[in-house]
Amino acid sequence: MEFTAKQIADFIGGRVEGNENAVVNTFAKIEEGKEGAITFLSNPKYTQYIYETKASIVLINEDVELEHPVSATLIRVKNAYECVAKLMQMYAATIPQKKGIDPLAFVSQSAQIGKDVYIGPFACIGDNVKIGDGSRIYPHVTIYDGCQIGNNVTIHAGSVIGADGFGFAPNQEGYEKIPQLGIVIIEDDVEIGANTCVDRSTMGQTIIHKGVKLDNLIQVAHNCEIGENTVMSAQVGMAGSTKIGAWCMVGGQAGFSGHITIADKTFVGAQSGVISNTKGNGEQLIGAPAVNPKMYFKARALDAKLPEMYRQIAQLQREIEAIKEKMSIEF
């Protein structure tokens, strides 16, 4: 399937600079652009590649000023990243989607499967599971008994939904397992990456609300709740009963202590450690334990001075000891 620069510009509301009849039939990264491909420039770090890319068409923001001529046809738009995502969604919609249950999958007879669902090979769907319309369950996904999956949910390979939460009570002989009697509820339009685990609750529900996007290798513990449209990068870990609000953004390898509440629209940087409730909407946190960015960077600036400060303190201590010794001799 081929599209001209003019057709693309009309679709995304852009302005063509160059050959409006330039034709593309694939996508490429700007540094790997080739003839017949469309690419985009949104990150200033990649500006250098626009002068050498072989791509036929480049989407570029309206306000970008180029220092040299380029060979590619440009389409100026308000937000190049959003526009290329829109084009890729349009292209993906033309690719036939798999439907039905693969013969190598196991689906309990008591499970309820909606319309136009795909369940891949070696997936395991337990007793009384409910899966809504249009959902996609990829190979080797395991959904334990009683869990509920909404409409248009995507769960990638190897993920486990509804395994027991980590509940053990210490006694004189070791640890006694606390039965995990709840379920997991995943609402509509959620996407869960490969090898992510969402544990069932001790009682009640672990809930992933509508529109949440979870990356690969994320751990969501028992009785956690993630608000609508929150996104999390890979290797985030949530301890039990953590409540995260709507529209939050969480960087990779961030960790959350249990029984805390994170307000809507909180930004948590990569490798942060959040150990207490957040203050309010729009708060930004980085570091471990997580603090606001200004405090974090002030502390990191002092880190570089610590060796010299240590030497200075040691020198002052030697000088004080010398003065004390001199004073004791005189008196």
pLDDT below 50 for ≥5 consecutive residues: which ranges?
A: none
Tally of helical segments: 4
Overall geometry comes to flat
Quaternary:
single chain
The helicity comes to 10-25%
Spatial gap, N to C terminus: 98 Å
Spatial ordering of strands, largest sheet? 8-11-14-17-22-25-28-31-34-36
The secondary structure category is: alpha/beta
Q: Major sheet: size, sense and barrel closure?
A: 10 strands, parallel
* Strand percentage: 25-35%
Could you give the count of β-strands?
36
From the alpha-carbon coordinates, what is the Rg to the nearest angstrom? 27 Å
Mean pLDDT: 95
Question: What this model shows, in words?
Answer:
The protein is built from four helices and 36 strands. By secondary structure, the protein is α/β, with parallel strands linked by helices. Strands 8-11-14-17-22-25-28-31-34-36 form a ten-stranded parallel sheet, with no helix packed on it. A hairpin with a 2-residue loop joins strand 19 (168-171) and strand 20. The model has no long low-confidence stretch (mean pLDDT 95).
In short:
Helix content is 18%, strand content 28%. By secondary structure, it is α/β, with parallel strands linked by helices.
